[in-house]
Amino acid sequence: MRTKTKKLAALVMSGVMTLSIAAPVAVQADDKVELTGMVQQSRWYSGLQNMVEKLEEDENISIEFEVVPDDQYDNLMKMRLNSHEAPDLIAYQFADLYAAVDPEEFFVPLDDEEWMAKVKAPEITEYNGKHYGYCFEASNGFQGLIYNKDVFEKNGITELPKTLDEFYAVCDKLKEAGVVPIAMPSDTWVPQIWMTSGMSRALGTEEACEDFANKILTNQAKFNDYPEMAAVIDEYLDLFKKGYVNDDYMTVSYDEILGRLASGEIAMIYGATEILTSIEESYPDANLTIFNPPVGYDDKDVLAYLPTAMGLAVNKDTENMDTIKKVFDLWSTPEYGNLYFQSRPGFPNIEGIDGNESAMNPDIPKIYNEYMEDGRVVAQMNQYIDTLQPLFGNTIWVYYLEAPSKGNMDGKDILDRFQKDVDKFMTEKGAEGWK
Length: 435
Prior knowledge:
Layout (H helix, E strand, L loop, with lengths): L4 H7 L21 E8 L5 H14 L1 E8 L1 H13 L6 E6 L2 H4 L2 H4 L19 E2 L2 E2 L2 E2 L5 E8 H6 L9 H13 L3 E4 L8 H12 L2 H12 L9 H15 L12 H10 L2 E7 H10 L5 E4 L11 E4 L2 E6 L6 H11 L2 H7 L22 H11 L3 E3 L1 H4 L4 H4 L3 H11 L4 H19 L6
Parallel strand pairs: 1-2, 1-3, 8-9, 11-13
Antiparallel strand pairs: 3-12, 4-5, 6-12, 7-9, 7-10, 7-11
Helix pairs in contact: 2-14, 8-10, 10-19, 18-19
C-alpha cells in the first residue's frame, strides 16, 4: 500500500519555489516529428496548449491532441488502448488513471529519465514500484464545495454554514429561490469525491485511515465493519432525497454543469482546488471560491487533500519514444514548465518551475494553511486503498451515481455490493488474506 501522506502534505501549498539555473535541454530540430495525444476537454488547459505551441515553433515537434468531452473520455481511452489504436500520449489524473486501466499493460515506465530526479512527488505516478507518467503538478490541492459567491450573496447568504443543519438551511433557501443547490454530472468521478473525501474525514486522522486501509486490504475487516463509511454515503444520498441535486444528474455532462455553475443556475459542486482553478480559467467573469462543507460524520472539521495531479502517460505502442523523451526533457525546464502555470496557478511537480502562486485564488492557501496549522488534514481515501484503484471506475463509482435513482439502496447496501467486487478482485490477485 502506498500512502506517504506526510511527505505529500508538506509539498502541497508550501508556497516555496526553488529557482533553477540549469539551461534548457537542447533538442535538434530537423524534419518535423508529429506526435498524437488525447485529453479531456476540461483539462485542455491553455498552459498545456502554450507548451505544445512553443514546442512546434522552437523544436519542430508537433503534438496533435484530440480534445474529448469528459463524459466520453474514459470509454474512448479504454477502447483505443485495448484495440491498440491509442495515441502516443494519454492525458489523465494520476494516480486515478490506474483505476481505469492497467499501467503495466499499456504504458511505458519512465523511471530512467533524468528529469525524474527533479520530481517533487514521485508517489503520484508510482504503480508497483515503477513510474508511468509525467505530472505537471505535485498535487491538485484539497477537496471541498466550490460555490458561486454571487449566487450566495444575491440570496442573502453572507456566512458559510458551520454545521450540517446550517448547510441544509442554505440549500433550502437556494432551492426556494429557484436555484439548484448541488450540481451533479453523469461523470462518475464527480460524485465519488463526496465519499473519498468523506471517508477520510470520518476517520479523522492519517493513522486511522492507514489502519483502516491495512485491515481492508488484508481481509482483516470488511467495509461495513466501519459504520461511519456507510454514514458518509447515506448523507450523500440524503442530498437527492431532499431535492438539492439537479434532476438530470444521470445524463448531463460535466461541461454543461460547469456552465450552469458559472451562470448561477446551480450554486455548488463538490470538487477540488484544481477544478476551481480550471473553472476560473474557463469562466473568468464568474465569482467562484471554495469551502470545506460541514458534515455529520466529522466533528473535528478535517480537510481532505489530494495527492493527485494532471499528467501524461506514454502508450506502449508508440513508435516515437525518443521524441517523447526529448519533449519531457524540455518540459521539465522553466522555459517550458512555467508556461503551464501562467494562466492557472498551481504547485509544480518539477523543481525549478514557477507555479505563479501569487495569482492563485487567495482562499486556497488561506484555507489550507489554516487546517495545516491545526493538524486537521488527511488525504482522500482513494490514496489509502489505491490497491483497489482498478475496481473504482467500473464498480463503486458507478454505484454512487446509480443509487439515488434506485431509491432502495443505502450506504450499507452499496458497500456490501462493493465488498463482493473487492473479494473477487483480491482473490484473483492472490493477495494476503485471500489466498
